[in-house]
Amino acid sequence: MGSLLEIKNLTIRFGSKVAVDDLSLRIGQAQVLGLVGESGSGKSVTALAVLRLLDAARVEGAIRFDGTNLLALGPEAMRKLRGRDIAMIFQEPMTALNPVMCVGEQIAEAVRAHNPGRSRSEVRDSVLQAMESVAIPDPARRYRDYPHQFSGGQRQRIMIAMAIANRPRLLIADEPTTALDVTVQKQILELLADLRERFGLTMLFISHDLAVVSQVADRVAVMRHGLLLEEGPREAVFHKPVHSYTKALMGAVPTMSTDIARPLAVVEKARESAVLPLRECSPGHWVRSTA
Ligand SMILES: Nc1ncnc2c1ncn2[C@@H]1O[C@H](COP(=O)(O)OP(=O)(O)O)[C@@H](O)[C@H]1O
Ligand SMILES: [Mg+2]
Question: What's the pTM?
Answer without folding.
Answer: 0.91
